[in-house]
């Protein structure tokens, strides 16, 4: 019988440089074991077979990643260097002309700034609101858990329907908010919430907050649940008030998960599309046109896919640039904890 | 024992009211008459069912629903089938490239708009534009990082000893996955499957670009077109939107146990 011990669990960290060499040696080892055993060794052949089938386990995910991530990036790079329209891609080589067009377009640059500002601001507000909600539910104990599952519903609501619901609430004629404000005498005539830049952004932010804060709260709730018991009680016995206990004890302890939650929310904030599509369609004017929305219109309505490809790559680079410091912060906080 | 009034309860009630408001308002609107809508009041003055009938007449809502449910279920299944064996192989069997976890997760950072033009040409080339199958394939693959992220903590928590014992008894990796690991991570599997299914059901951007006929459109796309229609009134829009919302809410209410668990565990580790 073969003597080699090859436990799948024995090498937890075998990533990296010697990987291919190591895998090849192992395959040869299995083959040698199977072939050098005097009597026919079914076990050895089975082990060799299993070893050779290993790539099949990973192939589907690798395939999905290639189709959804690697291929799009390669395709976009090629497309951005070409002269193309939606119906006739890759008509000629255009060099960096599309990038020059994109970067020279004030409206595109403005959309980038809007998108980044909105993503950072809305994520910060939602993490604060989500944490407040989680603290509220956490201290309510049993009832909190029940409410937590009710708060799942906004997250589960299709974003298009969230947009429709808020559009109906905010509508100038017959909207719930205007109806209420008029009845209370707070305004004399209906406010056009989606008609001015500032109010339109506030409306999007409100619908966004409605949809995502419960998710943030669930994550915060999980972070709070993992805190060691007793620290809070000890501080209470020492006479620390609720605000002091939160600021000096709870907050430092959940800083690392909180940074992770902010990162997750930031990633989602950059994906904002459906709400602007339904609520404002990028308007009034271009006031709420995010980069994602402008790329959508440029490629699918004006068919300028080459320039849209250049804009997409610039956008992706910017997202990386903005999220990197958050990733760093999260790592630093985790290290401090360890 | 003396009971003091808990000042947190009204706060919780306000939060609950805020999060329930849009859905309750949709429900109320869907039963309002055309004139009643203009009052801007929360509750309907007179209750009518006309909006529901008219909404189903104005748009093929039942076709949209069938499309949405089909796409969501099939793509959810596809995502789980793609992800779970690979996550198990990487995390527990230590097969292959260990950095696959990081790569999978970081591929989730890019917004879907990045993939829209390349996937458009890919589907066009494959003859899958404007087909339900095309959407199933796209969602099935796009949601893989989410599923990977959700299932990871569940896989990590399966005791290694159980598997080692099975390995000594001669069980191969596939056998161990099916008869030992999968039963143990069943709640995580349910949560993961549910969440990716709901993500697919809710998706709008890909569906709006990759389908362009009523026979393939999903509910979010159908309703986005509905709301641009000047002839459609608020009540019908509310009824149509609720038609799209009700299936997810039913699923969420019946299976909330798995959902909270999946989201809370998957989140922060």
Automatic annotation (TrEMBL), chain B:
CDD domains membership: TM_PBP2
Q: Which residues cross the membrane?
A: 12-31, 69-91, 103-123, 129-151, 177-201, 234-255
UniProt record similarity statement: Belongs to the binding-protein-dependent transport system permease family.
Instruction: Tell me which residues make up the ABC transmembrane type-1 domain.
Output: 65-255
Q: Membrane topology type, per the record? A: Multi-pass membrane protein
GO BP terms: transmembrane transport
Keyword vocabulary terms for this entry: Cell membrane, Membrane, Sugar transport, Transmembrane, Transmembrane helix, Transport
Q: Where in the cell is it found?
A: Cell membrane
The organism's superkingdom is given as Bacteria
* Kinase recorded as keyword: no
Q: Does the keyword Transmembrane helix apply?
A: yes
Q: Pfam families annotated for this entry?
A: BPD_transp_1
Q: Would you name any one GO CC term?
A: plasma membrane
UniProt protein name: Multiple sugar transport system permease protein
